[in-house]
């Protein structure tokens, strides 16, 4: 649980950092440009849903409080918002790469560290961050992938994608419960984890 909260906090702080660097200080002014989990935790999404999933074996969906973005401050709103959206999953990949380097160092040791609780925790950290990155890049709003997609396609297409936003989580659960989401994500996860671990 601590690994999830920490990873989500870095993810949201990365959105805030990207927004601030692209001209929108909104998140920074609200204290969201921070690694402090307290400013990012959403009680339902970061605590209740993951605990229910862990205790019941249901598919895990968790989220933190979204970072607010004021398009009026962005020089190129659609393009810049896509970059801001991509910053979150990119931060999870950076964390996964760093975790893999630590895991490699531990795994190369003999005796106490190799196969220890520490090694297992670091490996879980890598797997979770890859999962967060891959899941968040699914091109369904309100996930980051949906927001990235909206910045890459023509404006008319972006408006159509945006109309699906209120139904995004219903669509995600439908994809999850039918196994389609797993079929999409698993090959990508395997590829990335095979490279890292």
Describe the structure.
- Helix 1 packs across helix 5.
- The chain has 197 residues and is mostly helical.
- The chain has one domain.
- It has 9 helices and no strands.
- The chain is globular, with a radius of gyration of 18 Å.
- The model has no long low-confidence stretch (mean pLDDT 89).
Mind sketching the topology for me?
Layout: H1 2-21, H2 26-29, H3 43-56, H4 77-107, H5 117-136, H6 144-152, H7 155-163, H8 168-177, H9 180-196
Record keyword descriptors for this entry.
197 residues, mainly alpha, globular
Structure classification:
mainly alpha
Q: Radius of gyration over alpha carbons?
A: 18 Å
Q: Count the strands?
A: 0
**Strand and helix order:** HHHHHHHHH
- Low-pLDDT ranges: none
Mean pLDDT: 89
Describe the main β-sheet briefly: none
Q: Portion of residues in helices? A: 55-70%
Shape: globular
Span from first to last CA? 22 Å
What fraction strand? under 5%
Question: Can you tell me the number of structural domains?
Answer: 1
Give the number of helices: 9
Brief description of this entry?
With 197 residues, the protein is mainly α.
